[in-house]
Specification:
By secondary structure, the chain is an alpha+beta fold. Helix content is 44%, strand content 12%. The chain binds 2-acetamido-2-deoxy-1-O-phosphono-alpha-D-glucopyranose (GN1) and magnesium ion.
Length: 351
């Protein structure tokens, strides 16, 4: 067994440990101890420079939910023998979570009902925290969804990156530069006080939602990137990851599409929870949310490729180029359906 588990007041001597999940950043394992299950995670310190800040945020949120919404299922980490939810072991930081009995998670969105449930859960999380002072949260990853900064990193990579990779990526580079209106729109948003700073999850992929056996959403998990932010981050990342039947890993770009019924599910699920607390300006930028996140992710993958894959790594030659290209195609597919999708938003936003 992993010796790190000795730091918990639980006897794990006969536990079975297996790798778990598909995240790119943290290492995750599932620990089976008889009938009980736990999730063990090693925090990636290159990304989260101050793991104690994550623990601080989770503790703050946990006590707020406990006080104001005790019925909300908030999955807190197991407290280790050192009294903290974080264990330092062999140069790394680890956390352990109880596996919620009767819950399940999915890796791929396969029905609009799942998309609806997930959107409602992410919306509910932000809504319940509407009165929580987001200033109390530490910024675990500074400038995580700062699109202006991501754009300037992209421009810098065009100067400092690998010359051959830059040449080979010229079509993608041109496309992203031509779409820089998406950055200008972001800059308007951050200077507009009608856009509320909200408690934002910042990683709204489907595997971060727990479902019950009947397929109803229970809660959201993986709170490492919960920070003060804008709703466009959460809605946009759902669009980025739920709309297409294939993921960011797909290299047959003809298979990328924007499924309208899944779009409808995100719109209605999120508004079911958030409509009454959103401003008209926020509602009117619901479509923009998808552009914002897909564009940012395309740029992050391409920037990483140009710089030699320092952040995401590459499982095969040109991996991040494929992922960047995939995201650009997704962005194009989304733009093609703008009018139709905007109609769906308008119908739900002001109903
Ligand atoms: C990373 O680790 P994972 O897969 O949940 C990244 C997200 C990206 C995503 C793209 C901390 O998330 O922002 O959208 O990869 N997380 C971090 O797959 O950089
Ligand atoms: Mg994550």
């Amino acid at each position: 067994m992993f010796d790190v588990l000795k730091h918990y007041p639980i006897n794990f001597s006969r536990a079975d440990i297996q790798k778990f999940g598909t995240g790119l950043i943290n290492h995750t394992w599932i620990v089976h101890k008889g009938q009980e299950k736990f999730i063990l995670q090693r925090v990636n310190e290159n990304v989260f420079c101050k793991p104690h800040d994550i623990a601080h945020n989770i503790d703050c949120l946990s006590s707020y939910f406990h006080q104001h919404y005790p019925e909300y299922l908030f999955v807190s980490p197991v407290v280790a023998s050192n009294g903290s939810s974080l264990v330092e072991y062999d140069g790394g930081y680890y956390r352990l979570f109880p596996f919620v009995a009767g819950s399940c998670s999915v890796d791929v969105v396969s029905t609009p009902a799942q998309a609806y449930q997930a959107a409602a859960q992410f919306g509910k999380f932000t809504r319940l925290l509407n009165k929580f002072d987001s200033g109390k949260l530490k910024t675990c990853i500074p400038d995580f969804h700062n699109l202006s900064l991501r754009y300037s990193h992209f421009l810098a990579a065009l100067q400092n990156g690998d010359a051959q990779r830059i040449r080979e990526s010229s079509a993608l580079i041109e496309f992203l530069k031509n779409q820089s209106g998406i950055v200008s729109m972001y800059e308007q948003i951050i200077h507009d006080e009608n856009f509320r700073i909200r408690v934002t999850h910042h990683d709204t992929k489907i595997s971060n939602v727990l479902f019950d056996e009947a397929g109803n959403g229970l809660c959201v998990i993986d709170l490492d990137t919960v920070m003060a932010g804008y709703f466009i981050s959460d809605v946009g990342d759902m669009m980025r990851t739920f709309l297409s039947p294939v993921s960011e890993e797909e290299n047959d770009f003809d298979r990328i599409e924007v499924r309208e019924e899944f779009y409808h599910a995100i719109v209605t699920g999120y508004f079911a929870e958030m409509k009454d607390v959103m401003t008209p300006e926020e509602k009117d930028s619901f479509f923009y949310a998808g552009l914002f996140m897909i564009y940012m992710q395309a740029m992050r993958f391409l920037t990483d490729h140009l710089l030699g894959d320092p952040y995401y790594g590459a499982k095969y030659e040109r991996h991040n180029l494929v992922r960047a290209n995939n995201q650009v195609v997704l962005l194009q597919r989304l733009l093609e359906k703008q009018t139709l999708l905007q109609n769906k938003i308008n119908t739900s936003a002001y109903a």
